Amino acid sequence: MSESYILSILAFLPLAGALLLLFMKSENVGLIRFWTLGVALVNFIISLPLLWLFDPANPGMQLQQKYAWISSLGVSYHVGIDGISFWLVLLTTFLSVICILSSWSVDKRVREYMFFFLLLETGMIGALISLDVFLFYIFWEAMLIPMYFLIGVWGGKERIYAAVKFFIFTMVGSLLMLVAIMALYYMNISAGGEATFSILEWYKLPLAPSVQMIMFAAFALAFAIKVPMWPVHTWLPDAHTQAPTAGSVILAGVLLKMGTYGYLRFAMPLFPNAVESAAPFMMTLAVIGIIYGALVAMVQKDVKKLVAYSSVSHLGYVMLGIFALNPQGVVGGIYQSLNHGISTGALFLLVGVIYERRHTRMIEDFGGLSKSMPWYATVFMIVTMSSIGLPGLNGFVGEFLIMLGAFLTSPVAAIFAASGVILAAGYMLWMYRRVFFGECDKEENQNLKDLTKLEWGYLLPMLLFVFWMGIYPGFFTAKMEPTVDAWLQQVEDKRVACSELVDENPIAMFFTEDVSPSE
Amino acid sequence: MTFQMSDLSLIAPHMVVTGTALIVLLVEAFRPGKGRSDATYLSILGLLVAAWLTLRQFGAPATTGFSGMLIADGYAAFFNMVAYVVGILTLLVSDSYFRSEEYEHGEFHALMLMSLVGMMLMSGSNHLMLMFLALETMSISIYAMAGYMRTKEGTESSFKYFLLGGASSAFMLYGIALLYASCGTTSLSGMVEYFSTLPSLGDSPMALAGIALVAAGFCFKIAAFPFHVWTPDVYQGAPTSVTAFMATGVKAAAFAAFFRIFVVAFPIASGAWTSAFWVLAVATMTMGNFAALAQRDVKRMLAYSSIAHAGYLLIGMVTATSEAGTGMLFYLISYVFMNIGAFGIVIMLGKKGEDRTTLEDYAGVGFKKPLLGAALTIFMFSMAGIPPTAGFIGKFLIFKAAVHEGYIWLAVLGVLNSAASVYYYLRVLVYMYFRESESESGDVIRTSPLSILAAAISVIAVLILGIVPGYLVQIAEAATAAF
After folding, report:
1. Shortest Cα distance from B255 to chain A (angstroms)?
2. To the nearest 10°, the Cα dihedral for B252, B258, B263, B265?
3. Of A83, A102, A89, A15, whose CA–CA distance to A46 is shortest?
4. Structure confidence at residue A506 (pLDDT)
5. Cβ distance of B388 and A148 shorter than 8 Å
6. Binning pLDDT at 50, 70 and 90, where does residue B308 land?
7. What phi, psi does B316 have (nearest 5°)?
8. Residues of B with CB below 8 A from A509's CB?
9. Which residue has better confidence, A384 or B200?
10. What span, in angstroms and rounded, lies between the C-alpha atoms of B154 and A279?
């Protein structure tokens, strides 16, 4: 199957492009920009055939490729996609192009900037397509490095603090997950399985519910930090605010989705009984995140920080949906994570547009912008509506499905979450009013240039998806639903199969073996 | 004691290295050379010949010689290779350093080669007496190397290391004496035979005390808590290339003998020593990492970080399975590349008489010297254990072995320590890339083709071992399969 190479090409083409970038003269800024754009664009075009190569009726892994990599450990290079990762891969290739267009104005150390950006794309796609846990972990961690540099070198005033905090927060969670991965590896072997890190094999591993709880805790923490869920979200506002525009877009658009994707691919199907017990807790955290994020967003003075906190709120919906554990909720959760990539990505782009003109993001510095920048105000309004969840735009579909799913599982959670929608309307519209309406009384704001061609160039595709995903969601959900149904079935089957298993002393594995020499 | 000609083939690599040391001394006596690198080329040639001779030992059945004192097996061969790598890389990074300090004497090379012979004998010693002699051969050369430049700090470093090293040797010898008193022999096979007749170790408190004292001696050499206090001062005072040599070579050789002796000879006492090492491992890595967090000087930070690395390696001692041994072997070779590589970069950033090793000296260097910055970045990520580097695979193998034996808490403490260490490794990058360069940092660097070669070899090795580690893992597995 020659088309099965597509996924590997998607993952490594940006890396190759990045390495070639190093041979270009750093003064040759034009070449560097066009080269990077070309690489990202080609990667996006290569990813388009997935639309017809991917068989929506097949709920399993498709376009798989598997080679032995570290054979003595059972590590393999194993990639593939299913309905859960399909759209996320396309979102990544799409947003990468948008981000590079929006980075045209970066003029500090362009070559290094573009190098790290392409590296990031490799990391993101690699993590999304990995079916080997070891391989996934490598990409998952390696993704941190370019993001760390993007924030640290090209970020705002507090960039160093934000970059280090971002790195260390994520690292702590991932390392605990690493220990759990090692433990699972041996559990799989002692359960009679072969030495392998293949997630598809690990799905079959029966584990006692008590053991699952411990393992789930380690995985859930790593992913919760990435999502980020309340209360481990504190790195996000810093990282978002300090990152350069494109960094924020990709952070919101793809990196955060790695957390929710991690739950769907790893934490939940591996430990269904733990998910069953933890679901109320996780849903509670999700609802707290929704309301907390919204309330904190409301009082922000900085537009970018407001959008960052709104991310915490939006990702709360995603988590609520997937922990509802029914088709509506899970499809809604995946849909909402795509939406969030588009809407919040677009919001960050728009904030970047105004920041470039005024070098401030404080709400109080603006007012009456709709007069000086009518087109900008219009686009901003559409994206705001999409973020709030206006019917007909993309945000509505996701939130509606999530509410529906959550209501079936826990009406109380759904009711509280719904209040978040109202709060979202509150903070977004209030911010919009203060920025765009009223008197244009500040002199600097009166003669601002409206959107340029380049800015239209990266905003129009985003708007296209805002409408498309809002008006015709079936095109997108059709590719997810079979996988999600099978996924739910698999989780349920495993839950039933494992519920009777007993491990007398689950805590015992936390202590060293009895090593007394007298035998 | 009988001697057979066949024994000579066991020590052929050792003889080549010793011979090279003597030739270097002779050449130096007749052609004292400033500004030439003859001694360096000659020494590297000798090490390559020795490496070629050692290659034969891979996969060959283990043989002993000199009445069972010396053993040649895959394990010893692996560590001999480590010693050659340490030697060659140290010679390469020393080149520009001693050239700029105007201290290019062949004596340094000879001392280093002799020390390498000690290291090689340590990993092959099957007998406590040979092990002790090898340890002293290794150490005495290093005492001289630490004070080689006759600066105030160097002399202090050398003297401190000598005094404390002497004390630790005394501990170890006393331990060996106690073991001899209880077992009647000091060969590993003899001791394990004696122990197998004992119902439990409680019946021989003298042997237990001996084991503890031997362990203390090793802990000094690997700089484990609480025997680590000498490390920062000695590492900082010594010439940087000697520091690189001490931090890697001594640690690798000491761990080689440590692991072999404890796993082969003292399995009976494993209940006692694993719990002791458990505590030592946690204390060592925690202490090393937290002290490193506070350092503003890169050389001193690397000294403390080497203590932390000893802590991770001690996790392998706790686990003490052949799987853990595989992890330790892989970790040590990775550590050699990333550590000497990092010290090599530290050397390049200095200038004559001034090492320029504070963090401020690194401000903005990353963009001024992109290749140098990229190399140090890769070494820092590797030391922090971030994929795709050798350091990650090394940590992964060690922690994995610990988890396999049920030491989950130990692995958890290990990874939390790694997370803490990320902070200070990243801080170097913060200065290199995120801060604007100060006055003259990174303007002048001292390089030579040889030191660039050392950095290039290290970078490539760290990346290859991180991306395609399979081959080396197999070699390490074969080398430790006997344990």
Report:
1. 22
2. 140
3. A89
4. 53
5. no
6. very high
7. -65, -35
8. 406, 408
9. A384
10. 62
Chain B residues 393-432 with CB within 8 Å of chain A: 396, 399-400, 403-412, 415-416, 418-419, 422-423, 426-427, 429-430
| CB < 8 Å to A517, chain B | 200-201, 268-272
pLDDT at B248 over 90: yes
Q: Please indicate whether, in this complex, the C-beta atoms of A141 and B387 are within 8 angstroms of each other.
A: yes
Contact between residue A380 and residue A450 where contact means Cβ atoms under 8 Å apart: no
pLDDT at B254: 93
Q: Would you state the structure tokens that stand for residue A454, as one six-digit string?
A: 């380049």
In single-letter form, the type of residue at position A47 comes to S
Q: Which two tokens stand for residue A6?
A: 């597509």
Task: Give B274's contacts in chain A (Cβ within 8 Å).
Answer: 512, 515
Q: Which helix (H) or strand (E) element contains residue B64?
A: strand B63-65
Contact A112 B474 (CB under 8 A): no
What's the mean pLDDT in A338-350? 91
Bridge partners of residue B71, in order along the sequence: B64
Q: pLDDT confidence of B199, banded at 50, 70, 90?
A: confident
- pLDDT tens-place string over residues A263-310: 999 988 999 989 989 999 999 999 999 999 999 999 988 899 999 999
**A138 contact residues in B (CB cutoff 8 A):** 387-388, 392
B407: which chain A residues are within 8 Å (Cβ-Cβ)? 512
Q: Please tell me the distance in Å from B52's CA to the nearest CA on chain A.
A: 26
Gap between the Cα atoms of A179 and A164, Å rounded: 23
Mean pLDDT of B263-277: 81
Kindly state whether A497 is in contact with chain B, defined as any CB-CB distance less than 8 angstroms: no
Angle of helix B74-101 relative to helix B251-260, nearest 10 degrees? Answer: 160
Cα B82 to Cα B75: distance, rounded to the nearest angstrom: 11
Name the DSSP letter for residue B436. Answer: P
A512: pLDDT strictly greater than 60:
no
Burial profile A86-106: b = 16 or more Cβ within 10 angstroms, e = fewer: bbbbbbbbbbbbbbbbbbbeb
